[in-house]
Amino acid sequence: MLPAPFTAEFLNRLEVLRLRTRKEVLGNGPGVYSSPRRGTSLEFADYRKYSPGDDLRYVDWGIFARTDRLYVRLFREEVDLFAYVFVDASASMAFPSVTEKFSAACNLALALSYVVLANHDHVRLHSLNEAPAASPFLRGRNRIVDLIDFTAGIEPAGAPDLAVSLGAHLRRVRRPGKAILLSDFLVPADSYQKGLNLLRAFNLDIAAIQVLSRSELEPPLSGELRLIDSESREELNIRWNEATRRAYRERLERHNRELKSYCHQSGIHYSMYRTDEDLTDFVLKALPTMGLFK
Amino acid sequence: MEFLNPAWLYSLLLLPLLLIPYLIRRRPRRVVFSSVLLMREFAARVSADRSGVPPIFFLHLLILALLLLSLGEPSFPSRLLTVALVLDNSASMQAVEDGRSRFQAALGEAGRILRALPAGARVDVYLLAPRLAEIGEPALAPAQALAVLSRQKPLDVGERALDHGAEFSRLARERGYERLYFVTDHAAAGQNGNVRVVTVGRQQNNLAVTSLQLSRPLFNSPQLDARVEVRSFSAAEEKFTLNIKGGGRIIASRSYAVAPGKSAAAIFDSLPAYPFYEAEIASNDALTLDNRRFAVPPPAGGVKILAVSPRPEALASLRAIPGVELQVVAPEVYAKGDFPPHALEIFQYSAPATLPDNSALFILPPAENPLVRVGAGSAKAGVTGWREPHPLTRYVNFALFRPPYARPLKLGRTGEAIIQSSDGALAVAAEQKNFRYLALGFDPLPFLGRQNLPMSIFTLNVLEWLSAAQSRAIATGAPLAAGLRAGENLLAPDGQRVDLGANSAALYQGIYRVEGNGARYLAVNFDDVAESDLRATAPVQLRDEAGAPAERSLAALIWPYLSIIGLLLLLAEWLIHPLPIWRWKREPAQ
């Protein structure tokens, strides 16, 4: 049973989308994504001198007529895509509730995965927590069910370091492809930068989607509080009033601005998804705007 | 400065409670948040200024203190010059607490009050028992009043059931007292601008002998039975030893236990003859006065009867009763005669002009008699009702009780119907001045013995009841002269001769010796259960009465100004801080 946002209409609209990559990818079979290898697609890539044994069909007879030299045309190889969807499953993703934030992030991950599956590309879902888990590479629309089962088995808990957790997953990545990272990024800048750099090092085309709940953007707090960090269990005494509310909002905006700036500088797609936002609108309007889809 | 309602000052102890809402509000709620990463900067700054309470707390404290203080009704003390001091000297003030009696404690309080008065003050001193009366000279100096009070001692009488608050208020108003102090063991309820109640004593457990009745099992029997009733005014079960004394010696003794608030009855049979008896419980309770009770036995060895009748034949049959000495005279002889002492008088078909100073039986009295009104015509002799239990109806089988002729009687100002027929009362009994009177609408004579057993038993009951009147005990506070005949003198239990002036009341319990026509004894007992109950005395209800002459002017009262200041501050606080602390809403916890 698909989650609530996945109506037939939404699925139909997802099927017409296709992930866009800004890098060449190494696929496993024929597809629509450019590969650094030369192949048999219709897209011209280069010329090279004829060598005995080359297929005469690729000899450019026009050049031969002008220069009396034999050149053969080379074409790009178009391959399928390997997409890696990383979902942050730390304890902070369960705030204010699993349903409100983590499930919303999973739905977004499933929507993106469905786009990949519908194009007969490969997708693998990774959960970033203290016990890293990943689904197998899946292909074909009907495998969305397996992904749903996989996300249902993830419980957000613990306080994994983003870089360490990503590193554990990347050891198994063999093919460059598309990496989509869904996280609240409520970690120090060093931590997320290290994690994103790791993805870059693996030559992956990266998209970072920050998932924040309404309670994090505008905390419904008041009075004398002892705030407990959901991951580190660190405690802070604070008097929550208009001044602190304003200060928190400024600090969060600064934090998000720094993240966005870093992504821009690093050639990473960045977008923020508010969990009270409509998933359909976000996927069909916001993500194409940021250039995630073709 | 003094407080008209000082009990409210205890409410100032509640002031620290004001801190509670602040402390509750200041106690940080534990809230789990996704990440405190972004709050670390300003959390440290906030924690630094968490010391102390907000300034609004001190404004709230001031408002609350002012309002509570104004409830105590502070006022500037005026210079009291005319003061009355009423001392409770009733029996309950004899209760002993911590080695001294309530009365001694009351004297101490009175002394403290008097010493605090200015030198020019004038004091009138009153005692509460047996009735509210001024003692000593009026307008005494405080030192003189203290001297007068120090000579007083508590009486063995209870208080009259009066509304003390209203009475004192009236007294203060009529006599123009600026302040009336009532020193008592009663608490006060309400307040009055002039009357102050000073309470001494606390709740105590107590046992009381509430009844001692001596009776002869048979008419003219030499033996005596005693019935004693002991009542508990304690919160727990009490064990005690009950002693019966005859002539000052213990002649019987038993141990009993009585449940809280209940009574225990004991019967002692075949007591030897003594001139008087005393029942005493050996108990160390607070009030020893009600641990004793006295009684004088009914006369034995014959009843002297003076009978007045125009037809004395039937009366002569009374001589058949053993112990009855009968003297029969005609009505006209009785009017001018001087007769030797006798226990009772019987008027058959006749009546004196006034009730005699003796117990008397009126048999079918004429219409002009001083006791009852006689109905017209004859009554049906059938008995339709009778008082039960009553000494006059004891052992009488009224199913067989059929007087041959009867006339209905109607109750006068006093008396109660003992036997009733369908047409009216057939027997009316009354008690006045320690004498007993009985009017019969039928003639029980002649005395036929076993031939008419119900009527004979009734006749013997009548003779016993009437003759027992002279040995009946009287209660403290009742007039002593009521139990005396002309020419008799009275010696108090301490041997002092009692001055029997007008309305001379029995102030002390004990056995009084009556001297005159032969010596006899009179038992006087303290008989007031309200005084014996030391657990919760009824409070003195004070009411502020408008128009009292000594009412304080508004200028002397501070509390209205304090109230106004408090309310103005409250208004100011509301303007500054529209949401009071008790209405602050809290966000739901995450």
Describe the protein in words.
The complex is a heterodimer of chains A (294) and B (590). With 294 residues, chain A is an alpha/beta fold. Chain A contains nine helices and ten strands. Chain A has helices spanning 8-15, 61-67, 98-118, 144-152, 162-170, 189-201, 214-217, 242-265, 279-289; strands at 30-49, 71-79, 82-88, 122-128, 133-134, 178-183, 205-212, 223-229, 235-240, 269-274. In chain A, the strands form three sheets. A six-stranded mixed sheet of chain A has the order 5-4-3-6-7-10, with helices on both faces. Chain A has a two-stranded antiparallel ribbon with strand order 1-2. A two-stranded antiparallel ribbon of chain A has the order 8-9. In chain A, helix 3 (98-118) packs antiparallel against helix 4 (144-152) and helix 5 (162-170) runs parallel beside helix 6. Chain A is elongated and about 85 Å long. The two termini of chain A are 29 Å apart. By secondary structure, chain B is an alpha/beta fold. Chain B is built from ten helices and 33 strands. In chain B, strands 20-19-21-22-28-27-26-24 form an eight-stranded mixed sheet. A five-stranded mixed sheet of chain B has the order 8-7-4-9-11, sandwiched between helices. In chain B, strand 26 (416-421) and strand 27 form a beta hairpin. In chain B, helix 3 (55-71) packs antiparallel against helix 10 (559-576) and helix 4 runs antiparallel to helix 5. Chain B is elongated and about 125 Å long. Chain B starts with a strand and ends in a 14-residue tail after the last helix.
